[in-house]
Amino acid sequence: MTKYESIANEMRRRIKEGYYPIDQPIPDELSLAEEFGSSRMTMRKALDLLVSEGLLFRKRGHGTFIIQMYKNQSLNVISDESLGLSNLVKGKPVSSKIIQFTIEFPSEEVAGHLAIGRQEPVYHIIRLRMVDHEPYVMEETYMPSNLIPGITEDILHASIYNYIQQDLDLKIGGAHRTIMADKSNELDQTYLECKKEDPILQVVQVGFLNNGVPFEYSFSRHRYDKFVFTSVSVKK
Amino acid sequence: MTKYESIANEMRRRIKEGYYPIDQPIPDELSLAEEFGSSRMTMRKALDLLVSEGLLFRKRGHGTFIIQMYKNQSLNVISDESLGLSNLVKGKPVSSKIIQFTIEFPSEEVAGHLAIGRQEPVYHIIRLRMVDHEPYVMEETYMPSNLIPGITEDILHASIYNYIQQDLDLKIGGAHRTIMADKSNELDQTYLECKKEDPILQVVQVGFLNNGVPFEYSFSRHRYDKFVFTSVSVKK
DNA sequence: GAGTGGTCTAGACCACCCC
DNA sequence: GGGTGGTCTAGACCACTCC
């Protein structure tokens, strides 16, 4: 735990508990830095965190203010921070049904997104992910088998992400995502138990390791009545 | 233009032009700082920008690497940065058809999201937004009339965002967004000219001013075949 | 051990806002 | 003018990775 993180935690706690009046600026950066025994730069870095979380907003020449948040809904939330279903629905049992597990040469599209050649084999995996024994997501995933070797059905029943990070000791860097609505297809209707007229929330993702190499090109198709995607943006 | 922004611009140009080999780390921060005649902290701030854009990734004790990007699609892209349709489809003519424009007392839900009381009147606006004379988005918007006074049909035909920023001289701070898929309803089918079985990509947004006060609670319903939402996240 | 990014300091000047 | 956030400096020490 770094200094600026612990300062940010304390400030987050204060803001959420109503320690600071909501209609006034919080104390200026120099005063806060003195109170926490830090330099102003470190104090700023702590406040930067809270600004990026959408909790605070700065007004140059005026002060730093608390953003009046609105309440969240009760649906499952895919935030732009989370990676992997297992981390998303903590505490609930996650299981997987393997629909397809093959290895093949990639199409031009898949090879392009994974930045590999057409001759480099990829896993092609289709899984139904279940939470609390209810169908939640259909995932179609392509991964280069040279980069992520040793995938087995056992791993697919558990968590690919845990295997990559714990067993292969690779570090995940982040992801590009595209979110869209789509009509449900026959696979969706069969496995997600949704009706023919039900739409689907699809997340297309290219995950990359911390050295920038793409390791995953995936399509996650969510039941429209169980998932939303959230995002907070703050202008600079 | 600040120093770190101009350094970031130059580095972005270099990376995109292939100036640095893609399979090696770029030069270390101290060398780059010397080359650009800046302190290391300023150089870091420039690189921070490129990291947050998903262009670079740092590996502690090892170096800073270029992320191998994948190409974008040809659909309209709602990024987590953009605000307002007018800014989204630059160069193309945007027009609006006003379906409803009333003032009313808010429901509990609307009042809650706008952080106002039930007795504070709100505009209730439904518009069809067209680009190149083709229907693109159905927008339902609630705004407190005390906060954003003087809305007229003329403004609704143009851009509410421009009115807020230029005429009222208010500054927009950011937005919370929730993205979901939904079935199309009769309004969608009539005005977006979509079929009964076509899904909708809905973005629910609470926009807030730079003092943190919510000024807008809106539902934007997009044709599923014309819009996607993108997001880049990088682990720290 | 050498080299890298991660954090932190104690100042400084500037840009902007309100009085 | 006084107070605020925005930027910038020239160092320092630490944590991690590779050899």
Automatic annotation (TrEMBL), chains A, B:
This protein's record includes keyword Ribosomal protein: no
Gene3D superfamilies listed in its UniProt record: Chorismate lyase-like, Winged helix-like DNA-binding domain superfamily/Winged helix DNA-binding domain
Q: Which PROSITE patterns match?
A: HTH_GNTR
Q: Which InterPro entries match?
A: Bact_HTH_transcr_reg, Chorismate_lyase_/UTRA_dom_sf, Tscrpt_reg_HTH_GntR, UTRA, WH-like_DNA-bd_sf, WH_DNA-bd_sf
Domain of life where this protein originates = Bacteria
Q: Which residues form the HTH gntR-type domain?
A: 1-69
Alphabetical UniProt keywords: DNA-binding, Repressor, Transcription, Transcription regulation
Q: Which Pfam families match?
A: GntR (PF00392), UTRA (PF07702)
GO aspect biological process, one term: negative regulation of DNA-templated transcription
Q: Which GO terms describe its molecular function?
A: DNA binding; DNA-binding transcription factor activity
Name of this protein = GntR family transcriptional regulator
* Species of origin: Pradoshia eiseniae
